[in-house]
Design a protein that fits this description.
By secondary structure, the chain is mostly helical. The protein has one domain. It contains 16 helices and no strands. The longest helix has about 35 residues.
Length: about 325
């Protein structure tokens, strides 16, 4: 129905030629934007309703008591249902540290949170299909768990330089959550529309860039000029992505358009994950919390994990296509 609407609007109402570049780009833009907007409104509301049963301060207290990797799994799963970018996750990360949550557990949250959330899941499912979206979400959660466990084993607690009398994360820790069913429904609707108001323009920009690439960039551009078949393509894409700062909600439509132009799926996802999960603004903010030694360890471990995920997705995509 959405595709029919896009065809009707672009080709019948505005009378663009389906064979033209601008017609194809506008059709791609309308179809993807309407589809993503609907999914965002529905799924974010559903996830917000589930979150009303999970008081954040209780979760933090629970994490502080969990051992044997259970805390890492719990923190990574929490990160997967909280729609924060890498910089927005830092106050909550600080809140974990103030609550004396183990260091590795706190890192599991800050690693997974910007990479996996309901918005990203919606965008991935709507563009790449739900099988790829599910695999991506599992990969992001596993990366958070494994990287958090490794950092925890390194015994780097002394590298935290934060003064714990400073504020940080408290508003999130004491967020009001309604108890009545009617209150939970109202909370879910408010969260859905509030998040949508924050994201609609970002999503539109991302889809517009993707539509431009889809319609105007030659199909063999990236394969010819970027050497995407090279074994080094994944680490290069990861390194290029680190200095850039953007959320996955902006990047998914762009990444989809790039894959349509010849970049392997894993290479494109590694580029997206590096941008969303590791960025210079995040590093600058974290430098106030930890030493360079811990910061380098964090970035190095996560970057290595992203590269491995990129290779695995390239292999999966190759096998799946054959």
């Amino acid at each position: 129905m959405i595709q029919q609407f896009a065809n009707w609007l672009i080709y019948s109402i505005f009378n663009f030629d389906p064979a033209s570049k601008i017609g194809g780009s506008l059709n791609f833009f309308v179809y993807d934007m309407v589809k993503i907007y609907l999914l965002v409104l529905i799924i974010i509301g559903a996830i917000a309703f589930i979150r009303t049963f999970l008081p954040p301060h209780k979760l933090k207290e629970t994490f502080a008591k969990q051992r044997f990797g259970i805390g890492n799994i719990s923190a990574s799963l929490l990160g997967a249902i909280t729609p924060f970018c890498s910089c927005s996750s830092i106050p909550i990360f600080i809140g974990f540290l103030k609550a004396e949550v183990p260091l590795g557990t706190a890192f599991s949250f800050i690693i997974t949170s910007p990479l996996v959330n309901e918005v990203v899941l919606v965008l991935m499912g709507g563009t790449f299909g739900w099988k790829i979206a599910t695999l991506y979400a599992l990969a992001g959660i596993i990366l958070g768990v494994v990287a958090g466990l490794i950092i925890g084993k390194m015994k780097l607690e002394k590298e935290i330089i934060l003064k714990f009398n400073e504020s940080g994360g408290e508003n999130w820790a004491f967020e009001y959550l309604p108890k009545s069913f009617e209150g939970k429904i109202q909370y879910s609707l408010n969260e859905s529309f509030t998040t949508f108001k924050k994201l609609w323009l970002v999503i539109a920009i991302g889809v517009a860039i993707g539509a431009a690439i889809h319609g105007y960039v030659p199909a063999d551009f990236f394969s010819r000029y970027l050497g995407v078949d090279s074994f080094l393509a994944v680490p290069i894409a990861t390194l290029i992505g680190i200095p850039i700062y953007a959320g996955c909600s902006t990047l998914v439509p762009i990444v989809f358009a790039l894959t349509a132009q010849g970049i392997p799926l894993g290479t494109a996802l590694a580029f997206m994950m590096a941008i969303a999960g590791l960025s210079l603004p995040e590093a600058i903010m974290l430098k106030k919390v930890m030493t360079i030694k811990l910061l380098v360890a964090f970035f190095g471990i996560v970057a290595f994990g992203i590269i491995m995920i990129g290779y695995l997705f390239n292999i999966f995509n190759l096998v799946y296509q054959n």
